[in-house]
Automatic annotation (TrEMBL):
This is Benzoate 1,2-dioxygenase. Keywords: 2Fe-2S, Iron, Iron-sulfur, Metal-binding, NAD, Oxidoreductase. The keyword Cytoplasm does not apply. Residues 37-143 form the Rieske domain. Its cofactor is Fe cation. One of its GO terms (molecular function) is 2 iron, 2 sulfur cluster binding.
């Protein structure tokens, strides 16, 4: 094949400026993160009345709380009086939320309790912290900042069907969480998850454990599923690695019920927050489960190092975009989805 013919067949990635440009980063916030279902947490974080946690999506501070009637609520963590951030802690249990500026207080569902400096509580839209859509699926709490968005189940119908096979999911408990700042664009972290061409070189332990000759990446509308059996064939069940649009990854390994989730949250064009969480049937972990955590942690650290190295190349004059190998089709799929959302 001549060089010319070969060049014709190359398929190009998203331009590298999409990984460094502040305007594109801001636009992604509005067109992707303000419109998609985003994993916020797990119901075990808000088990009792008054339990809450705070969570930021692309610069939008939110509160997730459990009300007196047992219902979960999500709302902006912003005071409707003058715009102050209300709750400053990451989690806790409260009877009311109080704004520290002029002392307005709010019920657990975000509705105004008292506005001491006002003669009336008839404040229209200002009588409640702005509500956000919330849905629970398999004990995972998802939120959507777009009040017009179709439901989670409608948006991820095929994924829901696929995950329903894991009947143990709703009974898992959140056992451990780690947070790590990654010096890379959020898409670079997702890109890394969506292909396994790098596995043989970067993940020696992973490549010895799983059958790399039969490693599959299936594409679906709003998610991908990668799966592979164990090399030692000790179980029929493969490991499955799901990515869901736009920024959540979920892995389920063979063995006793388990799940790990990763949320990749954009902070800056070249910085992301990764929150990864382990779920097991009990918080008393067996030796095998502790080993699984170590294994997953190791693979992640190997990836984060690579992704940070990758980010250093995006802002140079060397190239303007990359090329996909045929087995980087998951990555290509994600980039198409990004382009579609950014139209
Ligand atoms: S800004 Fe919150 S009470 Fe005034
Ligand atoms: Fe990797």
């Amino acid at each position: 094949m001549s060089t010319k013919e070969h060049t014709k067949e190359l398929v190009y990635t998203l331009p590298y400026n999409h990984y460094v440009d502040a305007n594109i980063f801001e636009e992604e916030g509005k067109k992707i993160f303000f419109k998609s279902w985003i994993l916020a947490g797990h119901t075990s974080q808000v088990e009792k009345e008054g339990d809450f946690f705070t969570f930021d999506v692309a610069g939008q501070p939110l509160i997730i709380s459990r009300n007196k009637d047992g219902q979960l609520h999500a709302f902006y963590n912003i005071c409707p009086h003058r715009g102050t951030k209300v709750e400053r802690s990451e989690e806790g249990n409260k009877k009311v939320f109080m704004c520290s500026y002029h002392g307005w207080t709010f019920h657990l569902d975000g509705k105004l309790n008292k506005a001491p400096n006002f003669e009336t509580t008839e404040l229209g839209a200002h009588s409640c912290m702005t509500q956000v859509k919330l849905e629970v699926y398999q004990s995972l709490i998802f939120i959507n900042l777009d009040s017009e968005a179709p439901s989670f189940r409608e948006s991820y119908t095929e994924l829901v069907e696929s995950l329903d096979r894991y009947t143990f999911l709703p009974s898992l408990k959140k056992v451990r969480t780690r947070k790590r700042i990654i010096q890379a664009n959020w898409k670079a972290v997702v890109d890394n998850y969506l292909e396994c061409d790098h596995c043989r070189i970067a993940h020696p332990a992973f490549s010895k454990t799983f059958d790399m000759k039969n490693y599959h990446i299936d594409l679906h509308d709003n998610y991908t599923c990668q799966y592979s059996g164990l090399v030692n064939g000790s179980t029929e069940e493969p490991a499955r690695f799901f990515w869901t649009w736009p920024n959540m990854m979920m892995s389920i390994y063979p063995g006793t019920g388990n799940m790990t989730t990763s949320q990749i949250l954009p902070i800056a064009p070249d910085q992301s927050l990764a929150i990864y969480t382990y779920y097991f049937p009990s918080d008393q972990l067996s030796e095998e489960e502790e080993e699984l955590i170590k294994f997953v942690d190791q693979v992640r650290e190997e990836d984060f190092e690579l992704v940070e190295l990758l980010q250093t190349g995006f802002d140079t004059q060397a190239f303007t975009r990359g090329v996909y190998s045929p087995s980087e089709h998951g990555l290509h799929h994600f980039h198409k989805r990004v382009k579609e959302a950014m139209k």
